[in-house]
Specification:
The protein is α+β, with helices and mostly antiparallel strands. It contains 18 helices and 23 strands. The termini are far apart.
Length: 551
């Protein structure tokens, strides 16, 4: 028995050593991180620097977010507590309340972070105050951000998407990374040597970005043209072959970093006019004309315009009313000169059912699909109960008045469909989701098209739209030195009044260049009075700027 005792003791000793090794391995491999975090939390306090978020990019990968630098002044309480003269200096330079800063410094040990512009940051750094440092980062939005109604904005409190693409793709854009400015202290709140104040970053996922179909440079051109001309309305630029939205601008717009002042503003800056419903006036005559041509009716029929036409007890006036009318006028001239009596007579002949069927084929009265890509939109409106429509209703429909409404986006797509030979493409505003290396992780765009009018009808409509810019109501959209254009004007009465005057929305929608169309552009000017005088020049200015810059 005594002879085996040393062996038994050795076995017990080695068993205990083995158990100790297993325990240490368990703590290191399985519980180490958890225990480390627990221990650190007992001796550290942190302030979140930012909530990292994926970028929103244009079609070429140009960032639309995080384009400008920003800086934050970091005050380290354990260094500057009690140094009121230093705090007064900091407060004076940063233009913040000194008493508030002193209260925060006295109450906290974690960093106090104050955002500041470049000039203030430089002045702070010149002071050389111990316990004050600067952290640089990229600002998500600034006063030069383009496409604000598409991008949307973030909730200021928690940086969650509140509108637009930011809201729709919020979970994709939320980048799982903690970015903290921490302080490490002992039980007596003394800084731990070698740790003290430091920035900690913990990554728990991969960054995902959203790539739009928007072109940054085209969007910038559109917004600058609208700003120069003080336009209240919307402009859309669409690629006629793909259905991609290259630019979508609504003015006036807003500052995405501070939307509170706009919540009850009478200018409705947060309202996206590019996807809101409006009466579209004579733009609808494109639908009438397509219906007539597809129906095989005589496109050379003549009509005597006396300046007005009476349907029931209502008189519908022509733009040539004051001149006694257009006289005898044919189909092409009636289109280019926007003769209301001609198109009302033609609409009655075609019938509401055929005209509205064609309008639906062009997408009016329905969603374009960008709502499913993060940009909310109206569907416009077409009369529902066709059988109950009276002749007066049909007359209104024929000239784009009454219950007929459409969005600038829908109007741009009408033009794109005509200009590409009669194919209606799916509209896209978002292309795909990509990772930080640029690889596509999910396709969002939809590629499909449907022929809704013949190539022959398309060619005839384009011929007449070119007459509009050559000699009709849209001559201010003509740009002969830059390849020319075709289009249609519209002046839509709303039934509303502003300071005793009728509110009349102005439209021009067209394509360019004339011989080889590439882009469709819809211009809507709220209460612009006359499409040919107000909206057409905006179209020309946008188109010329795009051509000059190589588009």
């Amino acid at each position: 028995m005594h002879k085996n005792r040393p062996i038994i003791l050795c076995l017990i000793f080695f068993a205990l050593i083995g158990l100790l090794i297993v325990k240490i391995a368990y703590l290191q491999l399985y519980s180490g991180e958890k225990l480390s975090r627990a221990a650190a939390s007992q001796r550290s306090a942190s302030t979140e620097l930012e909530k990292p978020r994926g970028d929103i990019l244009d079609r070429n990968g140009i960032p639309l977010t995080h384009r400008s630098k920003t800086a934050s002044v970091v005050l380290k309480p354990l260094f500057i507590r009690g140094k009121d003269d230093k705090i007064d200096t900091i407060s004076r330079i940063l233009k913040v309340d000194a008493a508030k800063i002193k209260r925060e410094v006295d109450a906290k040990r974690e960093p106090v972070i104050i955002e500041a512009d470049y000039e203030k940051v430089q002045k702070i750094l010149e002071q050389g105050i111990e316990g004050v440092s600067v952290v640089y980062s990229l600002k998500r939005y600034d006063d030069n951000t383009v496409g604000r109604h598409i991008l949307g904005y973030l909730n200021k409190a928690d940086q969650v998407g509140e509108a637009g693409v930011e809201k729709f793709f919020n979970e994709v854009l939320r980048y799982k990374e903690d970015s903290l400015f921490s302080v490490f202290t002992d039980a007596r709140q003394n800084l731990i040597q070698g740790l003290g104040y430091r920035i900690n970053k913990t990554q728990n996922g991969s960054k995902q970005n959203i790539r739009l179909t928007m072109d940054y440079h085209i969007q910038k051109i559109v917004e600058e043209v609208m700003d120069r001309n003080h336009i209240k309305g919307a402009v859309i630029v669409e690629d006629i072959y793909s259905g991609d939205i290259l630019a979508m601008a609504s003015k006036p717009d807003f500052k995405p970093n501070d939307v509170f002042p706009y919540l009850n503003s009478h200018n409705n800056e947060l309202f996206n006019r590019a996807v809101a419903s409006y009466n579209l006036g004579s733009i609808f005559k494109i639908i009438d004309a397509a219906c007539k041509l597809e129906d095989g009716r005589n496109d050379r029929s003549w009509y005597e315009c006396t300046g007005s036409i009476t349907i029931g007890d209502k008189e519908f006036k022509c733009s040539a009313y004051e001149k006694g009318g257009h006289g005898w006028i044919n189909f092409e001239d009636a289109f280019s000169k926007s003769c209301n009596p001609y198109f009302i007579s033609m609409g009655l002949e075609l019938g509401a059912e055929e005209v509205l069927r064609m309008a639906k084929e062009f997408g009016l009265g329905g969603s374009t699909g960008i709502r499913d890509q993060g940009v909310d939109e109206a569907s416009g409106n077409l009369p529902a109960n066709i059988k109950r429509l009276l002749d007066g209703d049909i007359a209104n429909i024929s000239i784009g008045q009454g219950n007929v409404m459409a969005t600038p986006l829908q109007v741009a797509d009408i033009i794109a469909t005509v200009a590409n030979g009669g194919i209606k493409n799916k509209i896209n505003i978002v292309d795909c989701i990509i990772d930080s290396a640029g690889s596509i992780t999910k396709e969002v765009r939809r590629n499909e098209g449907k022929r809704i009018i013949t190539k022959k009808t398309s060619n005839k409509l384009m011929q007449m739209m070119e007459m509009v810019t050559n000699s009709g109501t849209g001559t201010k959209a003509e740009m002969a030195d830059y390849g020319g254009a075709g289009g249609k004007t519209g002046s839509a009465e709303t039934g509303q009044f502003n300071h005793g005057e009728k509110v009349v929305h102005a439209w021009f929608a067209g394509y360019f260049p004339r011989k080889s169309p590439r882009y469709s552009v819809a211009v809507f000017v709220e209460d612009g009075k006359n499409g040919g005088q107000t909206a057409a020049p905006i179209f020309a200015e946008v188109a010329v700027e795009m051509i000059k810059k190589g588009y």
